[in-house]
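Box 3.1 A note on notation
Throughout this textbook, protein chains are presented in two layers. The first layer is the amino acid sequence; the second is a token string describing backbone geometry. Keep the layers aligned when reading.
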Amino acid sequence: QSALFSLGLYISRLKKKNNNIILSFWGSEIKNLKGWESMLQKKLILQSSSYTFSVEEMASEVITLYKIDKNKVFLIGRKSKALIQILNNTDGDKNTAKNHFGIPLQKMVITCGYNGNLEYKHIDIIRQIKKFNPTTLSNIFLLFPISYGRLETQNEVKNELQDSGIDYLIVKDFLDIPNLVKLRICSDIMINLPEYDQLSNALLEYVSAKNIVITGEWLSYKLLDDYEVYIKRISCLNDLGNILQNTLENYKNEFEKIKG
């Protein structure tokens, strides 16, 4: 809310000096606002003179929603430094990456989300996993990158996993590029279940690091579909346990589907 007001004041000041305001979209939060917040957002968007997007699908949605002139919309490419390093080293040394974070080499590493925001459903995911049999639980390691977003999630995850017997790590600090690459490479399975999502660099990094990605059918990743990238989809959160259990039990076969 305060961010919207601040942005509104900032744009108003800018327009007094220059009418050429470029607005760039980098996330899916635009869909989360309701009521007066949505009205204020629309006003701010329509004050801009041109718009940049990194995902064509997001551009189409905004054009339709706000009746924006297509001639004012521009698509820009993006590759994070971490993504470039992963792509240049597609056979990354997983054991070295696991050792760096103190993860036992024999454990299957499951990454849950990539920030602390509630929409990534960390606690719900944990509760699904806690239902697994003791043998499965002894063979997995949960990884929670929570260096930004809602930081209270760090303690909530810790409390939920207390006395569970599940090995885990909460990554609380921002990582430099080499260590961020290790974080992606050490992971085997990535769970990404927000209600809304634009295709993020973080998700692309996990895909490029040859993670088996489990995501929701309600999330449209047209770019991944266009390139026939293998990802597993669930129709609702309650399906996660069975899909994840099956993925763990058949990991070698599943991994073969993403190697190409």
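The longest helix spans residues 2-17. The chain has a mean pLDDT of 86.
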